[in-house]
Amino acid sequence: MILFERIRWKNFLSTGNQFTEVSLCDNTTSLIIGTNGAGKSTILDALCFSLFGKPFRKINKPQLINSTNEKDCRVEIEFTLSGTQWKIIRGIKPAIFEIWKSGSLMDQASSAVDQQKWFEQNVLKMNFKSFTQIVILGSSTFVPFMQLTSSNRREVIEDLLDIRIFSNMNFVIKEKIREIRENIKVLELKKESLNDKVSMQKEFIEKVERDSEFMIDAKQNRINGLDLEMLDHMKKSEYYDEEIKAKHFELSRLSGDKDKLKKLNELKGKISQRIDSVVKEHK
Q1: Chain centroid to CA 242: how far?
Q2: Contact criterion met (CB below 8 Å) for 49 and 55
Q3: Residues 6+ positions from 118 with CB-CB distance below 8 Å
Q4: What predicted TM-score, i.e. pTM, was given to this entire model?
C-alpha cells in the first residue's frame, strides 16, 4: 500500500516562488477544507503531476507554470511503498524528472518516457486512469466506473487485480493477428500472380500443342511425298542400272572390234609393203 508522507511545490499554478509544503503523515487521516480557490484541487493536481507528469484536472502543461515567474515550476512528493522510501521530483522550465529510492538517485540514462513507464509498471503498478479512479475521487472530474470506456474499465480492473499480463497477451495476439493478416494479403497477391502465370503458361502450352500438331501434319505430308519420290527414284535407278549393263555389254563388244581393226590395219600395212615390193620387182 502506498503511504504518502509529504508533498511540496513552488511556481505551480497560482503559488509563488516559495515552497508550499503539506505533510500527510502527521496523523492516520488528513482532512483538507477551504473556500473555493483556496488551493484544495491544487494539491490533487500537484500529486498527479509529480507521479504522472500531468495534473488531475484538465489543464494544459504550459499553464501549470506560475504566470508571474514563468519558470522553475517544481513539485516533490515523498511516499513509502512496501517499506521502501521513494521521492519523485518533477519540474518545468527546466524540465526535471528524478526518481529517488531510499535516498539514492536512480539511473537517468533512459528517456523520461521510459522512466515513467518503468515507474508506473514496477513501483505504482497503476496508470493515470486507474490512479484517478481508485485513489483520487474528485467530484468535478470523476467518471463513474460503468460510464468509462471498455478499455479504461479494463485498465482499472487489471490494475486492481494486478492482471495486466492479459492486456499484454491481448496486445501480442493482436500484433500476431495483424502480422498474419498482412501475410495473408501478401500471399493472396502472390496467389493471384501465380494464377496469372499459370494461365499464361496454359495458354502458351495450348498454342505450342496446336503449332506442334500443325507442324507434325506438315512433316508427315512431307515424309509421304518424299516416300513417293524415293519409290520413283528407285524405279528410275533400276531402269538406269539396266541401261548401264547394256552399255557395258556394248562397250565390251566394241572393245573386241577395236582389236580386230588393229589386226586388219597391221595386215593392210603388210599388204601395202608387199604390193610395193611386187611393184618394184615388176619394174
Answers
A1: 86
A2: yes
A3: 110
A4: 0.52
Q: What is the pLDDT along the chain (283 residues), one digit of tens a residue?
A: 788 899 999 999 988 899 999 888 888 887 888 888 788 888 889 999 999 999 988 888 889 999 888 899 999 999 998 889 999 999 999 999 999 999 999 888 888 899 999 998 888 888 887 787 777 765 555 566 666 677 777 776 776 666 667 767 877 898 999 999 999 999 999 999 999 999 999 999 999 988 888 899 889 999 998 888 888 888 888 888 888 888 877 777 766 667 777 788 888 888 888 888 888 888 7
**Integer CA distances (angstroms), 195 to 49, 181, 198, 248, 278, in order:** 60, 20, 5, 76, 118
Q: At what angle do helices 150-161 and 165-282 cross, to 10 degrees?
A: 110
